[in-house]
Structure formats: C-alpha cells, structure tokens
Amino acid sequence: EYEYTNEQHKKLFDTVDNCDAYVAVSGYSCDIMDKLYDDWYCYSEGEKTLAGKGTGKREEVVWTNYDINSI
Hints:
Blueprint: H1 6-17, E1 24-28, H2 31-36, E2 41-49, E3 57-64
Antiparallel strand pairs: 1-3, 2-3
C-alpha cells in the first residue's frame, strides 16, 4: 500500500516543518495535507485523470516551505 495514514502524514510534517532547509513535499490534495501545510506555499496544475486507471481525477500538489520564485 502506498498511502500514508493520518499519523504518518503528521509525523512527516513535524519532521520537515522543523528543517532548516528548502523542503518540497509532493502529494494529492486532501483535508489533512491542506491543513498540515496551510502555511506553506502550494503549487498545483489542477485535477488530472489518474494514470493507468482512467477513472477519477485527483489534484496533485507540491507544497514548499519557500517561494519557488525567490530562488
């Protein structure tokens, strides 16, 4: 299984949120990710059809702790 549990998402966030470095996290937009990374920069190109499945759409997002236009 490739999905994180909510607890795993929180543990990852606690780790990366305290990094003294540029950090980028890629994932799908969902309530827990949107709440955890609320203060981070969020980049998305909109919903896409799931690869290989042809059913359903999801929004892939990259959250960063920095403005990508500033580097």
